[in-house]
Amino acid sequence: MLRPFSVFFRRLFRRWNAVLALVFAAALAAEMFALHLFDTTEHRLGDLYMVRHADEYHADPDIVIVDIDDYSMQAMKDAAGLWPWPREIHADLLEGVQEFGPRAVVFDITFTEPDIRRPKSDARFSEVLAGLSNVYLPATWLQNTRDAGAYSVDKFPLRELAPAFGVATPGAANASASLQLPHAVSRSAWQLGLINRADDHDGVLRRYRLRTDVNNWQLPSVPARVAKDLGATLPQGKEFTMRWPAQPHMHVPYSELYKALYERGPDATPEERQKLRDTVQGKVLIIGVSTASAFDHHRTPLAADYPGVDVLAVALDNLKNARAVQPVPMLVPLVFGWLLLGGIAYYFSRRTNPLSIGALLIVTTVVALFAADNAIRSDVLVPLA
Q1: Whole-angstrom Cα distance, residue 116 to residue 138?
Q2: 155-157/176-180 β-pairing
Q3: How does pLDDT run along the chain (385 residues), one tens digit per residue?
Q4: Residue 12 pairs with which residues in a beta bridge?
């Protein structure tokens, strides 16, 4: 007499398993493609992978940071005075390094405002830049003009800036944008890229932009512009996740390089000239400020105060050497999650011991984490959270 009830409840139990599995499958799809409630957890898990495998990524020795550090600020006082230095100091450095043939020189210094007290200094800097085709300057796109701070900002027709940014495909004909541009330098000498950040919601810098869509004009970032000019093939999309080396790129104090080129240059010994050649020849020089007073430090997976010039070097290294982290297609973790949910529903419908199901889930989780951790070695990011 109880048999019909037993059959009824067994069938109902199986249907509820299927319904719950479908509900969770829909929730998984909604989370991955719309809600992103677990993004921070996913990012922190990815940070652990980056830290664990940072020692396996060796910074490109052909990318050298010419560091305006606290030591250089002090050592350059007699020659340049207090910061910001006259721009002719940078002109001297550029002229000196060109003798040794760097592949590129990248400034991570904004030259937004002309030096009204020393216009001849700006003019000399512009003159030197105009004669060089391998020097790049930064610009910043201001989505909100309040981001400009104390600087004056005007809107510029993007069509007029296309040659400076190296943009071959035009956007909207009458488009304009608010940009911080290097007005201290003659426009004819501009080779520009954007340095806008791509911080995540938790304030950690994990990604760098390849290009920014500004009124349908695709303006390249500095690393993307330089890497492309060096012959690198850029990843698809508008941004990429960075792979971080445990040891930073080679740092050369600005003051030491300046004095070796400009002050000791004529009297340099063969050994000193060979050292300069080893430091500069065939290298990409990135000139930037790492002092705390520059307020250009960022939270990254590796450190809470990573200098901005080092971030730029890592981004360029990733693109130059095809080391940018590629996320797997979202369909892969989605299908994996659906299969896992389907397996759980199946085993519950067979009235499998819940402890056995829990043990199977633990093993599956450990295997998935191990696979995702090892995928970073191939510059692949597998989302699991």
Answers
A1: 21
A2: antiparallel
A3: 445 545 544 554 556 777 787 888 888 899 888 888 888 889 999 999 999 999 999 999 999 999 999 999 999 999 999 999 999 999 999 999 999 999 999 999 999 999 999 999 999 999 999 999 999 999 999 986 555 555 556 688 999 999 999 998 888 888 999 999 999 999 999 999 999 988 898 999 999 999 999 888 999 999 999 999 999 999 999 999 999 999 999 999 999 999 999 877 677 788 888 999 999 999 999 999 999 888 899 999 999 999 999 999 999 999 999 999 999 998 899 999 988 988 888 888 788 898 998 999 999 999 999 999 999 999 999 987 6
A4: none
Q: d(Cα 13, Cα 18) in Å, to the nearest integer?
A: 9
Instruction: Give dist(CA 240, CA 325) in Å, integer.
Output: 7
- pTM across the whole model: 0.90
Using a 10 angstrom Cβ sphere, with 0-12 exposed, 13-18 middle and 19 or more buried, the burial of residue 183 is middle
Find, among 314, 302, 304, 281, the residue nearest to 108 by Cα: 314
What b-and-e string marks burial along 53-70, b requiring 16 or more CB atoms within 10 Å of the CB?
A: bbeebebbebbbbbbbbe
Reference 226, options 139, 134, 307; nearest CA is 134
Are 174 and 227 contacting, i.e. CB atoms less than 8 angstroms apart? no
CB 198 within 8 A of CB 299: no
Q: In DSSP terms, which residues pair with 140 in a beta bridge?
A: 180
